[in-house]
Task: inverse folding
């Protein structure tokens, strides 16, 4: 079959993958509405996060959401968008607290989006007066300066729980250590592998692998989040099969 | 002073009022004896325990006088409790002084008794309740002028405790018999005989209304005595008979039977109840003697043998009452008495309810009566509630919770001492200890120069990178990307110093770019450092040019890869590097002889591989990476065809690269300290990890044992 | 009005996202041109965003300096340093002697010190890992870290045969394989997140 000039096999394969992924998401989102209450495997970090939000509200303390130093232009944009979803859910849950949550980031577009997320969340719940533009702030423009700028927020603003969801490097260890020193909960996830290794040792509740991308589903951000989680599970198995098949074919000499 | 509740309308009135200010009902009874509080309903009970007599202004004079006399009498004067009060009143005048007794004798009675002294007061005055409705039986009215204010007592007022007589005697000044012409003949005859007369008023109380009509007093001749009287007289002659059970004898009927005689009437109930052999009066003289005995306090035999209605009602087993002298109960009723027994009245009379347990009404027009329906509903009468146990059934859990709450309440508001965090904690000591050990381990080789650690061996990819640079011609354009953070300068400078030194040795033209904001500064710093250490003469723009910062991350890289001159038209010095040598022939990234990326971030490495790599086509791509990025970058090295041609990893790679070049740079300088520091870190992690793990296990074991013990 | 603004923003996002995505897979000139334009707009906006970030940083610390929050002295130091660096960079250039002096003698030492502190923190965290969570994975994690550290260094006077090879094998086989698997999962998550934004399910732009 002769493909048109503007199509190539690799591109076509990629496009097909995207279309299948999207179709699965829409299908599971529609079927999820009819059969709600699908159980997700327990992730202790999210269970503890729920309790931490409640305790912070009761104690009148603040929640700190850190979105990392990743930008929206690169590969780390996915983790940054997940962090914004987490911020939205936490802002909604902790809106009645005396101290509203604060968001820090190491990238300016992400910081602007965090401000917009807070504003729209408070507007949706009818608490527009609670919005403070400085609640979404840039802590630093380099990873280590960002980490250094986040430490005063943890130490000085009576933070009871720190949620680190975004793109972090190994400097996340400093933030996690500060959280432990101040006696606050540290729940952290990153798409960066060295950061995940650091968080496994330093954080109280680390999110390993792609658990960070499941935050929306566990925080009831919407049916599409659960649907995308199910689509990921299916395509992961597909990739496993493809890898195994390719390895087998390579081993047998067909490739 | 507490308010008094009106028994009629239920409204509160001041205690000093006698009449309700709302409905004009009496608040304070007008009667002789005061019933006890237990008998009275709570609503009708006065505020004071003592029942105050009614106002004297409302009472007739004769009643007032009687009341006063009654109050003056000792309460223990009642000889017999079984004797009705009206009867005891007949005796009481005998105990009084003649003068007082004389004053108490009613005029009609005094008119009857010629020889006997005036009657003493038959009974103490009944100060309380005036319950007589004002109706008087016909026979009484025929006896004397009707006195509306006369208050003959009823037995309902009898108080078991007080032996007060409820009888009231008409005032002596008032004569019920004003018209002598109305006095029956037989009574006229009786009046000649000594003795008092029974208080007829008491007898009238036994008459149920409308059921028994007091027969009119028929005129009797003196010569015609009633049979019962004749019987009594005969019995007196024969003597008293042994006591027998005496059924209840309604005295009203008895009185009616005693004062009237009518043939053909229904049989009298005395036919059964009348103790047989009771002959009221055997003769006129006896009758008068009996009446005189009443005056003197002695009951006639026929009258003393008659048991009170109440006593016999309370005692189902008839008991023989003490019989007065001269009167013996007989089993046979005289025929005339039998004939007088009313058929229905007996049942009615016999069925008279026992009201002794009922409370005595103390206020209103029905004061003194028993069994009166209360004006207020029973709900408002304030009965004493049932006593329930107030002891709570508290379980141990409730008790524990109560104690806990009590403690919490006690501690509430108490200032709690602030928890002082100690400056020196175990964690802080451990951190300081680790820092001290690592610093010493790193400084020692730098200061002393020993021990000397052997250099690491080079890897194939490091060798490949070395060969790629070795094959460069002099002045070949090399794209050099500085994509690491200032914080990792220690490692990355040591890893890349050898490579840059090699490039300078080869005389390559370096085009410096960066996707990090600090990349340009970083590049300047390292180039200057290597330039100085290697004694090179690299300067911009002759030997290298700094194109600056590529914004947009991978997007910018893609744009740069497609057209570098369009993406970065000017260098940092403001001049265009693309016009003159040696970059004038570079129109795409593939035109560079070699692309070297120095990065600590595996994502940046991937971005370069994935965005710029395809644009390089066959031109090699070499990377100097941090040790932490190696696992993510290595697959690109081991791919087929390899996407990364050469790889220098961390300080060890830099040191081995320098060893390959035979030129000592930062890598070899730091190697001894780096090795010893690594060994110290390993020992620290091992020892401290085992100790903390052991303490954690021990603590959990202890906790488990404590839970088991608990 | 508010609903239409949200809808307008969502339409813009979806349209541009679709064009860029299709431009990666379909080699059409129109799509390529549009994609290039949109990408350059993104690059320009990212560069401008850095400036906006500077203003945001200054505003936060200016407000903190005016309040009674602890650490306001350091906010003043930050603002002064920012102003001085900006003035010097604009006046003399980013690679001038003064700018490089600030970079070489202030920024690099500070960040390198933070990295050194991170090393101590990581050593401390590794030492207390078994106290925090003691399980098989923690033991494997710690054992692997120790092997890599020992395999990287060279012990003076002691040569352990196979140690270097073991270290290389761990790095190249299980670590690389695990990293690849995690990266695949991260890639799937990133695709899902992007698709949610593309279809308008996630609207972090205030929709």
Result:
């Amino acid at each position: 079959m002769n493909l048109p000039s503007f199509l190539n096999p690799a591109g076509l394969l990629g496009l097909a993958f995207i279309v299948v992924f999207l179709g699965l998401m829409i299908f599971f989102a529609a079927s999820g509405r009819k059969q709600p209450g699908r159980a997700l495997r327990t992730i202790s970090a999210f269970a503890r996060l729920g309790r931490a939000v409640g305790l912070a509200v009761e104690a009148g303390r603040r929640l700190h959401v850190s979105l990392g130093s990743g930008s929206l232009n690169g590969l780390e944009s996915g983790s940054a968008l997940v962090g914004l979803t987490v911020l939205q859910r936490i802002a909604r849950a902790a809106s009645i607290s005396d101290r509203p949550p604060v968001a820090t980031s190491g990238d300016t577009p992400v910081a602007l989006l965090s401000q917009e997320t807070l504003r729209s969340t408070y507007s949706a719940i009818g608490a527009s007066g609670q919005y403070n533009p400085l609640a979404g702030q840039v802590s630093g423009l380099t990873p280590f300066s960002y980490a250094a700028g986040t430490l005063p927020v943890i130490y000085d603003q009576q933070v009871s729980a720190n949620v680190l969801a975004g793109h972090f490097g190994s400097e996340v260890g400093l933030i996690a250590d500060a959280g432990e020193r101040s006696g606050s909960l540290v729940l952290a996830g990153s798409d960066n592998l060295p950061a995940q290794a650091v968080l496994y040792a330093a954080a109280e509740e680390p999110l390993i692998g792609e658990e960070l991308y499941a935050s929306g589903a566990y925080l009831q951000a919407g049916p599409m989040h659960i649907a995308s989680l199910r689509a990921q599970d299916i395509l992961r198995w597909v990739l496993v099969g493809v890898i195994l098949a390719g390895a087998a074919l390579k081993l047998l000499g067909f490739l | 002073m507490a308010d008094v509740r009106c028994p009629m309308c239920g409204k509160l009135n001041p205690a000093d009022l006698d009449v309700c200010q709302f409905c004009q009902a009496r608040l304070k009874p007008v009667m002789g004896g005061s019933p006890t509080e237990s008998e009275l309903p709570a609503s009708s009970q006065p505020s004071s325990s003592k029942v105050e007599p009614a106002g004297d202004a409302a009472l007739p004079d004769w009643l007032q006088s009687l009341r006063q006399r009654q109050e003056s009498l000792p309460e223990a004067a009642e000889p017999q409790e079984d004797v009705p009060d009206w009867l005891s009143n007949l005796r009481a005048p005998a105990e009084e002084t003649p003068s007082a007794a004389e004053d108490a004798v009613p005029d009609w009675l005094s008119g009857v008794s010629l020889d006997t002294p005036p009657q003493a007061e038959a009974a103490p005055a009944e100060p309380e309740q005036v319950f007589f409705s004002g109706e008087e039986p016909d026979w009484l009215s025929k006896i004397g002028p009707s006195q509306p204010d006369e208050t003959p007592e009823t037995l309902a007022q009898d108080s078991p405790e007080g032996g007060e007589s409820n009888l009231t005697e008409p005032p002596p000044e008032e004569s019920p018999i004003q018209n002598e012409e109305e006095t029956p003949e037989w009574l006229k005859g009786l009046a000649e005989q000594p003795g008092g007369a029974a208080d007829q008023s008491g007898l009238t109380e036994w008459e149920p209304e409308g059921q028994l009509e007091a027969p009119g007093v028929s005129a009797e001749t003196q010569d015609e005595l009633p049979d019962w009287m004749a019987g009594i007289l005969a019995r007196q002659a024969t003597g008293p008979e042994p006591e027998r059970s005496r059924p209840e004898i309604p005295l009203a009927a008895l009185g009616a039977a005693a004062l009237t005689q009518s043939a053909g009437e229904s049989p009298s109930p005395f036919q059964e109840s009348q103790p047989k052999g009771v002959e009221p009066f055997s003769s006129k003289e006896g009758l008068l003697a009996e009446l005189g005995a009443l005056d003197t306090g002695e009951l006639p035999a026929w009258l003393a043998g008659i048991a009170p209605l109440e006593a016999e009602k309370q005692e189902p087993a008839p008991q023989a009452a003490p019989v007065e002298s001269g009167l013996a109960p007989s089993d046979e009723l005289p025929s005339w008495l039998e004939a007088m027994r009313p058929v229905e009245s007996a049942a009615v009379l016999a069925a008279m309810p026992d009201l002794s347990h009922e409370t005595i009404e103390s206020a209103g027009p029905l004061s003194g009566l028993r069994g009166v329906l209360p004006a207020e509903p029973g709900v408002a009468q304030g009965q004493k509630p049932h006593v329930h146990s107030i002891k709570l059934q508290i379980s141990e859990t409730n008790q524990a919770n109560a104690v806990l709450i009590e403690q919490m309440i006690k501690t509430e508001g108490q200032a709690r001492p602030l928890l002082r965090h100690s400056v020196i904690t175990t964690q802080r000591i451990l951190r300081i200890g680790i820092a001290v050990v690592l610093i010493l381990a790193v400084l020692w080789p730098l200061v002393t120069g020993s021990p000397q650690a052997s250099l690491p061996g080079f890897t194939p990819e490091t060798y490949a990178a070395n060969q790629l640079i070795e094959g460069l011609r002099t002045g070949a354009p090399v794209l050099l990307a500085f994509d690491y953070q200032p914080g990792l300068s220690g490692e990355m400078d040591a890893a890349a110093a050898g490579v840059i030194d090699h490039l300078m040795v080869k005389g390559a033209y370096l085009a410096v770019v960066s996707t990090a904001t600090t990349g340009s500064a970083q590049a300047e710093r390292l180039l200057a450092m290597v330039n100085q250490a290697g004694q090179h003469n690299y300067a911009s723009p002759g030997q290298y040019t700094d194109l600056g910062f590529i914004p947009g991350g991978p997007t910018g890289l893609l744009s740069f890869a497609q057209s570098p001159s369009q993406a970065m038209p000017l260098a940092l010095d403001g001049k265009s590097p693309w016009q003159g040598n040696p970059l004038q022939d570079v129109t795409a990234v593939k035109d560079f002889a070699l692309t070297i990326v120095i990065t600590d971030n595996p994502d940046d490495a991937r971005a370069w591989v994935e965005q710029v790599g395809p644009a390089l086509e066959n031109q090699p791509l070499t990377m100097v990476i941090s040790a932490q990025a190696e696992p993510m970058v290595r697959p690109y090295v081991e791919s087929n065809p390899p996407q990364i041609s050469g790889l220098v990893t961390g300080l060890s790679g830099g040191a081995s690269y320098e060893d390959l070049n035979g030129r000592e740079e930062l890598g070899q300088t730091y190697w001894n300290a780096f090795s010893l520091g690594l060994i110290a870190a390993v020992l620290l992690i091992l020892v401290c990890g085992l100790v903390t793990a052991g303490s954690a296990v021990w603590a959990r074991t202890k906790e488990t044992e404590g839970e088991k013990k608990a | 009005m508010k609903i239409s603004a949200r809808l307008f923003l969502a339409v813009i996002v979806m349209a541009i996202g679709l064009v860029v995505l299709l431009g990666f897979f379909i080699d059409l000139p129109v799509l390529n041109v549009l994609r290039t334009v949109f990408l350059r707009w993104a690059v320009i906006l990212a560069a401008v965003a850095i400036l906006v970030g500077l203003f945001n940083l200054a505003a936060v610390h200016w407000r903190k300096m005016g309040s009674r929050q602890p650490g306001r002295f350091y906010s003043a130091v930050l603002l002064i340093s920012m102003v001085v660096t900006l003035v010097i960079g604009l006046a003399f250039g980013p690679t001038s002697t003064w700018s490089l002096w600030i970079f070489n003698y202030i920024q690099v030492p500070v960040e390198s010190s933070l990295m050194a502190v991170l090393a101590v923190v990581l050593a401390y965290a590794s030492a207390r890992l078994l106290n925090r969570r003691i399980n098989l994975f923690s033991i494997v994690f710690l054992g692997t870290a120790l092997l890599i550290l020992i395999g990287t260094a060279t012990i003076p006077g002691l040569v352990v045969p196979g140690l270097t090879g073991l270290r290389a094998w761990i790095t190249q086989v299980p670590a690389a394989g695990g990293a690849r698997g995690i990266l695949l999962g991260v890639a799937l998550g990133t695709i899902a997140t992007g698709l949610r934004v593309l279809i308008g399910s996630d609207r972090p732009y205030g929709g």
